[in-house]
Design brief:
By secondary structure, this protein is of the alpha+beta class. α4 (about 285-300) runs parallel beside α5 (about 305-315) and α8 packs parallel to α9 (about 485-495). It binds ligand LX5. The site of ligand LX5 has 11 residues, from loops.
Length: about 600
């Protein structure tokens, strides 16, 4: 499950290294508009509404004024997203637009650098500019650092020799600094974060949210068409998590993310509700239904038959993306009254236009009664570790009536049973929480005839700037911190099996849970011990001839053991050989997630 929150997109998996790169959605002539930027030496900088902006989507530019009588290097720098990772094995691509607001006789070099906050220069490039350039002109340079400082306290800077540029004014717009990206995709993903997720072998990617789909208001809702095409045509928006989204990670980039990580999208459409509790009136839904149809056609339409699909083709992807699931809104149990008509119109129209799509409802299952009756619901739960253990049998009692369930957001977030969102929330997952989640997940496996997908949420968190915790994977400007819940998700994902094998059922409300699956010649036994004591188990595999050795991969630690920037590898999976037979015993450590792989004939 992904959404741009906690700088998980901008400043996270989206590889752009410069923060506030295009002064989107800021108020000109304010200090706040300059966030992440700072002047160097006697230069003065200001964000202005440009009299001739770079594009309609980017009305603001950076005005550099070099006072008369200046000497030495003057200009400005960007601090990145709480740091810039300078790596000498990478070549960085830097770009920006500039123009002189009025012709001048200036002729000189702009120096573009990567340097430490204390002035150590790691990479430098220069470009000659002339004061006769009064229309927007793009600069593109490559930067190759000569060393790899351990510290990420580095800046991207643009400077000019103050003496020769004395009294000059230059406008700048749309900066960008990219390192190499995951699978080399242009405008792509941060390699280490994308690789970490790829190594979990996820099957699907839910986008674009979550709250961030809905908008804190109607005007700031997520709109697919504002997130595609040339970067200078993307206005950005105030996201739902208290910061401006560049929308550089837009709908097409999300689709490429799915393609590059071999996942299929579960894509949401805005369904007429924003988080200020405003619902579009029933008789005014048509334009938003059309916008949803266009969004879907951008992803799967025929370029010869649909404008949005033709746009996709023109951007380099004529063939459709593999989309099966479309979610109508997000958490509409907050607005189930209006969802009754919103669902009817969205589901009615979308299923008429795209009869093969599986539409997911986001209200509580069958409450309220919806028409058409949803075949798919998205359930969310944030609870205590104990809740997850006690609800391992949550889906066992669900009617098998042709309805399928997506456990779209779940996580153990707190041990505060009276208010999981109150005091005592987890900042990082820990083994008490992760083993509880594993117990719940054995139940999802046992009920995989009706649970078609499940995803921990939220996915990513920049440790320098976050709102919601815990998250599956944390990171800073140069490191990735997979959590105990990440390893739990990964253990279940890469040891999935293709067939559920019935076994003795765990004790409801107990502390020990397991599920058994099979993948051709391997029987896979997943065990969650949510208690404080190790538990010995006896497995009997009747009517299967079993080889004598197998492996056990164990993730275990104390209840509060947790991976964090301070203790990044406190809890890691350990794999060892174990003795196996038609009947064998295995001891699951306290607070552990265990995967046994048993070779069979
Ligand atoms: O405040 S919440 O509604 O609990 O927010 C949750 C639910 C929402 O879908 C998602 O964006 C967020 C955290 O993952």
């Amino acid at each position: 499950m992904f959404e741009a929150s906690k700088q998980s997109g901008d400043g996270g998996i989206y590889a752009e290294l410069l923060q506030n790169r295009a002064f989107q959605q800021v108020v000109p002539n304010t200090a706040a508009a300059l966030y992440a930027w700072a002047p160097i030496n006697s230069a003065s900088i200001n964000v202005i509404t440009d009299p001739i902006p770079l594009s309609n989507a980017l009305p603001n530019s950076l005005k550099l004024t070099i006072p008369s009588g200046t000497s030495g290097n003057v200009g400005f720098g960007n601090e990145g997203y709480w740091g810039i990772n300078v790596n000498s094995s990478w070549t960085y691509e830097a770009s920006f637009y500039y123009k002189f607001p009025g012709a001048s006789s200036f002729s000189g070099n702009l120096i573009i650098m990567l340097q430490s906050s204390t002035g150590t220069v790691y990479a430098s490039a220069s470009v000659h500019v002339s004061g006769s350039t009064t229309t927007w002109t793009q600069v593109l340079v490559s930067l190759s650092p000569t060393s790899s400082p351990a510290s990420t306290a580095n800046n991207f800077t643009v400077t000019v020799d103050g003496a020769s540029a004395s009294g000059e004014t230059i406008h700048f717009a749309m900066f960008s600094l990219f390192p190499p990206t995951f699978k080399g995709r242009a405008n792509g993903l941060r390699m280490d974060l994308a690789q970490t997720l790829y190594d979990m072998k996820p099957s699907f990617f839910r986008l674009p949210g979550g709250n961030n789909l809905e908008g804190q208001s109607f005007s700031s809702r997520w709109q697919w068409n504002a997130t595609v095409g040339n970067l200078i045509d993307r206005p950005g928006r105030m996201g739902d998590w208290e910061y401006i989204n560049t929308d550089g990670l837009g709908l097409l980039e999300y689709m490429y993310l799915c393609e590059d990580m071999e996942m299929q999208p579960i894509m949401a459409v805005w369904a007429g509700y924003s988080l200020d509790e405003y619902s579009i009136p029933e008789d005014e839904l048509a334009p938003y239904i059309q916008q949803a149809i266009d969004q879907i056609n951008f992803v799967i339409g025929d370029p010869a038959a649909s404008e949005p699909a033709a746009l996709r083709a023109s951007l380099g992807h004529p063939e459709p993306f593999p989309l099966q699931y479309v979610e109508i809104g997000n958490e509409d149990f907050f607005a189930s009254e209006s969802y009754i008509y919103r669902w009817r119109y969205f589901a009615g129209n979308l299923s008429a236009v795209f009869p093969h799509l599986k539409l997911i409802a986001t209200s509580y299952p069958f409450n309220p009664v919806l028409d058409p009756i949803p075949k798919h619901y998205d359930n969310h739960v944030y609870q205590t570790p104990g809740w997850f253990a006690e609800n391992s049998f949550y889906y066992d009692s669900f009617e098998r009536n042709g309805t399928y369930y997506f456990e779209g957001e779940y996580a153990a977030v707190s041990t505060n049973t009276s208010d999981v969102f109150g005091d005592g929330g987890l900042v990082y997952p820990d083994m008490q929480g992760s083993s509880g989640e594993a117990a719940f997940m054995t139940g999802l496996e046992r009920n995989s005839d009706i649970v078609f997908a499940a995803s921990y949420a939220p996915l990513l968190m920049n440790v320098a700037q976050y709102q919601w915790t815990p998250n599956l994977v944390s990171f800073d400007a140069s490191q990735v911190y997979p959590s105990t819940s990440f390893y739990t998700q990964q253990l279940f994902s890469v040891n999935r099996g293709t067939e559920y094998l019935p076994s003795t059922l765990p004790t409801v409300n107990g502390t020990l849970y397991w599920s058994v699956t099979r993948d051709k010649s391997t029987v896979i036994i997943k065990i969650a011990n949510t208690g404080m004591a190790a538990e010995q188990m006896i497995f009997e595999l009747p009517s299967i001839s079993v080889y004598s050795t197998g492996t056990a991969t164990v993730l275990s630690g104390s209840a509060t053991s947790s991976n964090s920037p301070e203790t990044p590898n406190a809890v890691m999976p350990v794999t060892s050989q174990i003795k196996i037979g038609e009947s064998f015993s295995y001891t699951a450590p306290a607070y552990s997630v265990n995967v046994l792989r048993v070779k069979v004939q």
